[in-house]
């Protein structure tokens, strides 16, 4: 029972982390810094959320698809130790804009006492106005009102003395869809964070205007290593309706949205 509770809390925490960086990948490439958090979380839930639409954001209707997601994070520690973490997931979106995400969370294995990475399933239903976190072990689902749409502005702040260069990489076909590439290079000047040499952070982002999702994301930061994430096996067909419904044998528990997502003085109400 204790292990099940820890597993539930870990998945819940992952949901909040992904929500907190939600719509980064659903919006067109930003003009400035790709974000202060960076891929220091090693391909975990925050990385997943930044890459693939997150759990909140605008509803994309009329563009159904499904795909696999492959992520990798590599880092070399100060003593020369190489760390490599891989994870995988899947995403499904129907023509009404409902989205289901299945993801492995390798960073949470130690919290649950398991040698294998926990799997998480999230469903965002903008038609009903709810977000669900499914718990297969307890056959239950946490339901919370969808928060207001994320405007993306607060994640792109940067220091006044940071040097940012943005360049277009043109277009190319990735996994059968046309994507527009952008490279953002941010240089932290000497002394800004106690550094004796400039620190260069490079983000490469390939965005599909047709699907309105990022299909390839790369990030390199000498402080935290390199991350790469990619949509694979993209299918443009309508996913099965059952993927976006809570199984009939699940118990549904109503949960309040995280305070940061609600309106001032209270949470955003669900849609009628």
User: What structural class should be given to the helix and strand makeup?
Assistant: mainly beta
In the CATH hierarchy, what is the superfamily? Lipoprotein localisation LolA/LolB/LppX
Low-confidence stretches: 1-6, 16-56, 150-157, 261-272
Q: Sketch the major β-sheet.
A: 12 strands, mixed
Q: How many strand segments? A: 12
Instruction: Tell me the domain tally.
Output: 1
CATH topology: outer membrane lipoprotein receptor (LolB), chain A
Radius of gyration: 19 Å
Strand order in the largest sheet: 7-8-9-10-11-1-2-3-4-5-6-12
According to CATH, what is the class? Answer: Mainly Beta
Query: What is the residue-averaged pLDDT?
Result: 75
Helix proportion range:
10-25%
- The rough form would be described as globular
Put simply, the count of helices is 3
Reported CATH architecture = Clam
Residues in β-strands, percent: 35-45%
């Amino acid at each position: 029972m204790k292990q099940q509770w820890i597993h539930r809390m870990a998945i819940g925490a992952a949901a909040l982390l992904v929500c907190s960086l939600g719509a980064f990948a659903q919006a067109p490439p930003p003009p400035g810094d790709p974000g202060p958090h960076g891929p220091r979380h090693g391909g975990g839930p925050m990385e997943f959320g930044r890459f693939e639409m997150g759990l909140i954001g605008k509803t994309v209707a009329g563009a159904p698809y499904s795909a696999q997601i492959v992520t990798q994070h590599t880092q070399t520690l100060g003593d020369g130790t190489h760390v490599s973490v891989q994870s995988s997931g899947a995403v499904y979106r129907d023509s009404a804009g409902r989205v289901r995400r299945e993801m492995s969370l390798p960073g949470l294995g130690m919290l649950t006492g398991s040698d294998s990475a926990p799997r998480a399933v999230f469903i965002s239903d903008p038609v009903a106005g709810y977000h669900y976190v499914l718990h297969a072990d307890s056959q239950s689902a946490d339901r919370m009102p969808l928060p207001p749409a994320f405007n993306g502005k607060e994640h792109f702040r940067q220091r006044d003395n940071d040097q940012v260069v943005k360049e277009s990489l043109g277009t190319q076909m990735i996994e059968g869809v046309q994507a527009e590439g952008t490279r953002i290079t941010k240089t932290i000047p000497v002394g800004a964070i106690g550094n004796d040499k400039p620190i260069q952070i490079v983000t490469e982002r390939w965005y599909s205007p047709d699907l309105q999702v990022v299909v390839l994301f790369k990030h390199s930061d000498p402080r935290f290593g390199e991350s790469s994430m990619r949509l694979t096996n993209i299918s443009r067909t309508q996913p099965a309706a059952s993927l976006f419904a809570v199984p009939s044998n699940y118990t549904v528990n109503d949960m309040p949205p995280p305070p940061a997502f609600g309106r001032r003085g209270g949470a955003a109400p669900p849609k009628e």
